[in-house]
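In response to the reviewer comment on reproducibility (Comment 2.3), we provide here a single inverse folding case reported in full, input and output, so that an independent group could reproduce the run without further information from us. The structure tokens appear first.
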């Protein structure tokens, strides 16, 4: 759905390992790629799930993990930080349960959107299109500066 919205806006998706292949250190490649972009989309998909453990171990806030906790790739944080530092318009999506860093409300000046899924209602699809329309206006504004 996200790629479809980018296509509708006539925006070209770029991603290491998909459209661009690194020849240097991966983090440097992310930075170089981002410097040639006018906006960024962060996709918070679950990569790891913690079943048991201790949160904030060794602190007064220590407590056991009592339910499964999903974690995105740490690359989401690095990429978001680079894009934010370059002052590029950001669009952030997260699967249910994904939190921390860029996925915490109020960390950046952007809203954290729920990851779209193919079973979305017509009104949810319309709302998603509106989100992309507003974001792509910022992207185009950056591009033509």
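Designed residues, in position order:
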């Amino acid at each position: 759905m996200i790629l479809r919205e980018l296509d509708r806006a006539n925006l070209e998706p770029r991603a290491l390992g998909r459209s661009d292949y690194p020849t240097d250190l991966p983090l440097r490649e992310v930075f170089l790629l981002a410097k040639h972009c006018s906006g960024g989309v962060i996709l918070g998909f679950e990569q790891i799930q913690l079943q048991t453990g201790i949160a904030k171990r060794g602190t007064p806030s220590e407590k056991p993990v009592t339910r499964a906790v999903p974690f995105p790739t740490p690359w989401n944080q690095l990429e978001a930080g680079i894009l934010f530092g370059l002052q590029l318009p950001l669009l952030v999506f997260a699967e249910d349960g994904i939190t921390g860093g860029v996925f915490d409300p109020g960390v950046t000046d952007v809203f954290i959107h729920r990851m779209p899924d193919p079973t979305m209602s017509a009104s949810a699809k319309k709302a998603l299109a509106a989100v992309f329309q507003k974001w792509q206006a910022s992207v185009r504004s950056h591009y033509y500066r």
